Amino acid sequence: MKRKILIVEDNVGLSQIQKDWLSRAGYDAVTAMSEPIARSLIRKTQFDLILSDVRLPEGDGISLLEWLRKEKKDIPFIITTEFVSVPDVVRTIKLGARDYLPKPVHREHLLELAEDVFHPVATVRKQERQLFRRISPMILKVEKFARLVAPSDMSVMILGANGTGKESVAQTIHDNSERYGKPFVAVNCGALPRELAASLFFGHEKGAFTGADTAKTGYFDLAKGGTLFLDEIGTMPHEIQSMLLRVLQENVYTPIGSGRERISDVRVISATNENMEQAIKEGRFREDLYHRLNEFEIRQPSLEECPEDIIPLAEFFRERFSKELKRTTQGFTEETKQRMLAYRWPGNVRELRNRVKRAVLVSESPMLDVDGLEITVCVCRNEETDTLAILPLKGEAFEKESIIRALKACNGHREQAAGMLNINPATLYRKMKKYGLK
Question: CB 120: neighbour CB atoms within 10 A?
């Protein structure tokens, strides 16, 4: 379901531009010219975000935010203003506004703020998430380990680059454990504000500190009986690491402002793209916490290491976004498939997802083409691994190395390697014979 965004702006031209930007990004945007109209829409529709100008013909953005708080409507709110007033900004932030945007509003900044709003510090799932079944040998090995460790209560650490799908591995462990059916709470440790970390993890009682008007449930309570997934654990501030270590050691925690300890009943799974040995050596991560979290380690491979998954994943995302964006598509052109197989995918599955979504949106044909994906395959060296990218064969200088790399990536599967190199299997066989690669 699309996220609904309300734009409260009396400049019709500007509100239409912002609506178009958000619509093209996959959001459902609605406009209102005044505070009364905005209130009427908010009463009828459940919005996920409100973007409001301060100055309006009737009412203003600040009074709209005050009304929302009185009505106890906890909708993320971003204020926009042409004349930035420090007192106004401070007032809106105190009222709970997520951020403010000075005019003129730039598309990139607006979409970035929307992304931040819709990717919160923590998400709670009580129902099974539908995961795409991948087929590459390396992923099947990961799934084997995930299912093997799932029935135990061992703490698992998942290592892998950004965008590889580490949360999917954590979800697989949860779904195959005795905690299945209980909450799965995912926390982005990189987004945890230090000053609120204790309250977010353990909750607080009403009146525990200034602004604590009501009691709040923490992540350990939300995940009770289930799984607490700590993503980007390597970025967690040192003081939060100490708090977490105590809970893992003693199995108890105390909400802020409470005198009663609570028993921790969660299974902890963590994930990171950090080099943890280096982080420990540099004093950025506690070694004792690392060993508590890493009773069992799983490494999630990059998409480049799993070429068998590229086209099936692309088709999965194409079908999904065709439905979401109401676009009719049938597949990818042969040239597009070859280009996808030849590309390195530095952003992994997340990048593939985003590029396919874009291609579905901009395509003027049912068959998605290379232009829509906006990927290029070039001769380049990876500074970390010092290896050549897999390239369409051009010139004998690169042929042998590219063939070796393609065969290795495809575990010796000649047809897949040929597709990756944009040649037919018979041609690949002749070139393998030429270079003695049988």
Answer: 12
Distance CA 284, CA 270 (A): 16
CA distances from 371 to 108, 232, 243 (A): 21, 33, 50
Highest mean pLDDT among 73-77, 111-115, 434-438: 73-77
CA atoms within 13 Å, Cβ hemisphere of 132: 19
Task: Report the percentage of the chain scoring pLDDT > 90.
Answer: 43
Tell which wins on pLDDT, 142 or 194.
Answer: 142
Structure tokens at 398: 């690169």
Phi, psi of 95 (to 5 degrees): -75, -10
Q: Is the pTM for the entire model greater than 0.70? A: no
Phi-psi group of 216: left, alpha or beta (phi > 0 → left; psi -120 to 50 → alpha; rest → beta): beta
- Domains annotated for the chain, with CATH where assigned, are 4-118 (3.40.50.2300), 122-299 (3.40.50.300), 319-375 (1.10.8.60), 378-438 (1.10.10.60)
Question: Which residues on neighbouring strands pair with residue 298, listed in sequence order?
Answer: 158
Predicted confidence (pLDDT) at residue 392 exceeds the cutoff of 50: no
Strand, coil or helix: 25: coil
What is the three-class DSSP state of 68?
Answer: helix
With 60 as the cut, is the pLDDT of residue 52 above it?
Answer: yes
Please give the radius of gyration of the chain, using alpha carbons only, rounded to the nearest integer.
25
Structure tokens at 47: 């919005």
The beta-strand segments (E) located in 34-135 are: 49-53, 77-81, 99-102, 122-125
pLDDT confidence of residue 376:
65
> What does the alpha-carbon distance between residue 75 and residue 98 come to, in Å, rounded to a whole number?
10
Q: How many CA atoms lie within 13 A of 383 on its CB side?
A: 0
- By the 8 A CB rule, do 65 and 88 touch? no
Spell out the alpha helix ranges (H) of 81-237.
86-95, 107-118, 137-149, 166-175, 197-202, 219-222
- Mean pLDDT in residue range 376-388: 41
Cβ burial, residue 151 (10 Å; 0-12/13-18/19+): exposed
Find where tokens 């990048």 sit: 351
Mean pLDDT of 315-336: 90
Which residues does residue 156 pair with via DSSP β-bridges, in sequence order?
269, 296
Q: At 296, give phi and psi (nearest 5°).
A: -145, 130
